[in-house]
Specification:
This is Opioid growth factor receptor (OGFr) conserved domain-containing protein. The chain is mainly α and 276 residues long. Helix content is 38%, strand content 3%. β1 and β2 form a beta hairpin. The radius of gyration is 18 Å and the shape is globular.
Length: 276
């Protein structure tokens, strides 16, 4: 199988290929950025923590298709490098890893010596675009097989919400949806009237074992085969914006009040949320 047929997210995270993103930046380069650059750059988060939903902020950004999903579920080296990305983002938010997740439970806790307080200025406030990034990160980790890391990260940010009172319940609502909803149902979806992303729906309904991941010929998959699954442009990205505000109004000219999508995708209806 040629390298060109490997999904871009897999090439980016593959420890041997180390392919750059669309802007020519490698994973190691992005992870070496300063906190200031991580804060003010807005075109890396979609590749670092991709979603099954296409981004209206950057429609050209890669998405998690079936082949990408299969590759991360079958290849621990991809998940390890995704975890490295999480560790760097946790440092950016003022957290640190405790526990390995192998023999003792993984915890993500505040850094000491005033480091958390210094870095919390980036995101512990109302109407902060990092709240959307957090939603994205939680969902990405769960979809790509880092469930324990997703739970530890969710617990850490929820604790900050509960303790500070400076993050809205609205943001916590989206974080909770990202953590607790079925994988095929995106946090911003208000109505579940279909199967969502069919490969995610099928995965959840055949169990969580890797033996359930097969390629189109019914053989165990390794994520090297590309997928013809298309991503609906009528999904709303969890990305840059103020405190999940933009997730209530899809930034897409083709969006309709009730989108007539194929039966193997969720019928998207515009969410009508009240401010908490």
């Amino acid at each position: 199988m040629s390298t060109s047929s490997t999904p871009p997210i897999v090439r980016f995270y593959d420890p041997h290929l180390k392919a750059p993103d669309a802007q020519g930046r490698s994973l190691s380069e992005i992870l070496s950025w300063s906190d200031s650059r991580l804060e003010f750059s807005h075109d890396y988060i979609q590749t670092l923590f991709p979603l099954p939903e296409r981004s209206p902020i950057d429609p050209s950004a890669p998405v998690i298709d079936h082949a990408t999903f299969t590759a991360f579920r079958c290849r621990p080296e991809l998940r390890l490098r995704l975890r490295l990305a999480l560790e760097r983002i946790c440092q950016f938010y003022g957290f640190r890893f405790q526990g390995t997740g192998e023999h003792d439970s993984l915890r993500i806790e505040k850094q000491g010596n005033g480091r958390f307080e210094a870095r919390a200025r980036n995101w512990v406030s109302r109407f902060n675009h990092n709240h959307l990034r957090i939603t994205r990160i939680i969902r990405c980790l769960r979809v790509l097989g880092l469930d324990e890391e997703a739970k530890a990260f969710f617990d850490a940010v929820k604790q900050v919400h509960d303790e500070t009172g400076r993050i809205s319940d609205r943001s916590l609502m989206f974080w909770t949806r990202a953590m607790e909803r079925p994988l095929y149902l995106a946090p911003e979806d208000e109505v579940d009237e279909g199967m969502g992303k069919d490969f995610l729906y099928e995965f959840e309904n055949q169990g969580d074992g890797r033996e359930g991941i097969k390629d189109r010929n019914g053989m165990p998959g390794d994520g090297t085969n590309s997928d013809d699954d298309t991503t609906s442009d009528n999904t709303k990205d969890l990305d840059e914006g103020d405190e999940n505000t933009h997730s209530t109004t899809p930034d897409n000219p083709s969006f309709r009040e009730e989108d007539q999508t194929p039966t193997n995708t969720i019928r998207r209806t515009k969410p009508k949320y009240e401010e908490v």
